[in-house]
Design goal:
The complex is a heterodimer of chains A (114) and B (111). In chain A, the strands form two sheets. In chain A, strands 2, 4, 5, 9, 10 and 11 form a six-stranded mixed beta sheet that branches. Chain A has a five-stranded antiparallel beta sheet with strand order 1-3-8-7-6, with no helix packed on it. By secondary structure, chain A is mainly β. Chain A contains no helices and eleven strands. Chain B is built from no helices and eleven strands. Chain B has strands at residues 4-7, 10-13, 19-25, 31-37, 44-51, 54-57, 64-67, 73-78, 87-94, 101-102, 106-110. In chain B, strands 2, 4, 5, 6, 9, 10 and 11 form a seven-stranded mixed beta sheet that branches. In chain B, strands 1-3-8-7 form a four-stranded antiparallel beta sheet, with no helix packed on it. In chain B, a hairpin with a 6-residue loop joins strand 9 (87-94) and strand 10 (101-102). The radius of gyration of chain B is 13 Å and the shape is globular. Classes of the chains: A mainly beta (114), B mainly beta (111). At the A-B interface, strand 5 and strand 10 of A face strand 10 of B.
Chain lengths: 114, 111
């Protein structure tokens, strides 16, 4: 069964600090991995999408890494801001040749404080 | 450009009542999806559509029906609501292999 596990479940950091969120997956066959940001009371918004051949992808202060060999990904947030407070969801897509299926992680809830 | 719009935003139902959740997108996307999000669980796919007039079952389809009569609209129906269907429902749409665009959800409570 395809699974996506994220850690930590929750995290509190001071504004201006960096943090790294982890995602481990067992999805086969692998197609791509996405990170989404979900603000409280809102729908998820895509941050990055990486395919098998991509190791790193940045979107402003967000940098995602992918190690397809160990089936791990991380999302690094630099110089955190109060607006970064949200849940961050790792999503892995498989592809069987006819259709793709997404497996969602349960998310890491990040709180940035003063 | 509104993106993906879900109505209503909140609703409280009694067990056994029926209702329809509406999802509308203005991006001319072919693919549309309905998910539910429950505490401690990842988003789970209920039904999806790959184009106007087509629908397919997802991971947790029981107790739900859908229709896609127009390309821009995807309706999710609960024929006889049950407390286990209390959840936050998200609609999403996408174009080709691009990431999905999500609406802001419908919070549904069934008493």
């Amino acid at each position: 069964k395809n699974q996506v596990e994220q850690s930590p479940q929750s995290l509190i950091i001071l504004e201006g600090k960096n943090c790294t969120l982890q995602c481990n997956y067992t999805v086969s066959p692998f197609s791509n991995l996405r990170w989404y940001k979900q603000d409280t009371g809102r729908g998820p918004v895509s941050l990055t999408i990486m395919t098998f051949s991509e190791n790193t992808k940045s979107n402003g202060r967000y940098t995602a890494t992918l190690d397809a060999d160990t089936k791990q990904s991380s999302l690094h947030i630099t110089a955190s801001q109060l607006s970064d407070s949200a849940s961050y969801i790792c999503v892995v897509s498989d592809y069987t040749g006819t259709a793709s299926k997404l497996t969602f992680g349960t998310g890491t809830r990040l709180q940035v404080t003063l | 450009n509104a993106g993906v719009t879900q109505t209503p935003k909140f609703r409280v139902l009694k067990t056994g009542q029926s209702m329809t959740l509406l999802c509308a997108q203005d991006m001319n996307h072919e693919y549309m999806y309905w998910y539910r999000q429950d505490p401690g669980m990842g988003l789970r796919l209920i039904h999806y559509s790959v184009g106007e007039g087509t629908t397919a079952k997802g991971e947790v389809p029981d107790g739900y029906n859908v229709s896609r009569l127009k390309k821009q609209n995807f309706l999710l129906g609960l024929e006889s609501a049950a407390p286990s269907q209390t959840s936050v429902y998200f609609c999403a749409s996408r174009y080709s292999n691009q990431p999905q665009h999500f609406g802001d959800g419908t919070r549904l409570s069934i008493l």
